[in-house]
Amino acid sequence: MKLVVVLTAVIIFYGTIMLNLLIGDIMMRIMLPDGLVASGNVRGVLANANFMGLGFSFPMSFVHLLYHLLFVIVGFSTITVWVMLDRSQKIWGFIVGLSYAFSVASVWIILLMVFMFYDERIFADWGFVIIFNLVNLLLGCWLINKKVSI
Fold it and tell me: How far apart are alpha carbons 57 and 65 in whole angstroms?
């Protein structure tokens, strides 16, 4: 249930950003004379978002938004696996779950530090998200079948 709330909040966050950009563009067009305002300001901001350091805030397409949602799911499912390991084995489960969470974070950090071309970066990012979502799903199903109470 917490994951659904976070995913809804992420979608509302993106919607709010887009709505604020649109309202700001309309207000600027109303307040300034026609010759001072260029057309396509919102499209220009979205196109240059990666260069301005806002690449994570603006989804460029539905696939980009889907990637960010899957990335959030990786974080939540990793924490869920950690909690279920803690509940199943107490001390050793906590240690194994913590090391698993750190290993997932380490793989992500290593992927960020490796030099890749643009097309390789896309495959690496999607591979990370898909593989770790699958691994977390399988670990979660295995732990739930062990009758772990959360």
Answer: 10
Round to whole Å and give the CA distance between 140 and 128: 18
Question: How far is the C-alpha of 88 from the C-alpha of 67, rounded, in Å?
Answer: 31
Q: Decide if 39 contacts 26 (C-beta within 8 A).
A: no
Tokens 């966050």 identify what position? 13
pTM of the complete model: 0.68
Handedness of CA 43, 49, 54, 60 (dihedral sign): positive
Return the structure tokens found at 28. 């600027």
Q: ∠ at Cα 6 (80, 17), nearest 5°?
A: 150
3-state secondary structure of 61: coil
Q: What is the CB neighbour count within 10 angstroms for residue 73?
A: 18
> What's the token pair of residue 74?
């990786």
| pLDDT tens digits along 99-149 | 999 999 999 999 989 988 888 888 999 999 999 999 999 998 888 887 665
Helices then strands, counting H and E runs in the chain, come out as: 5, 0
How big is the CA angle at 10 (ends 4 and 142), to the nearest 5 degrees?
40
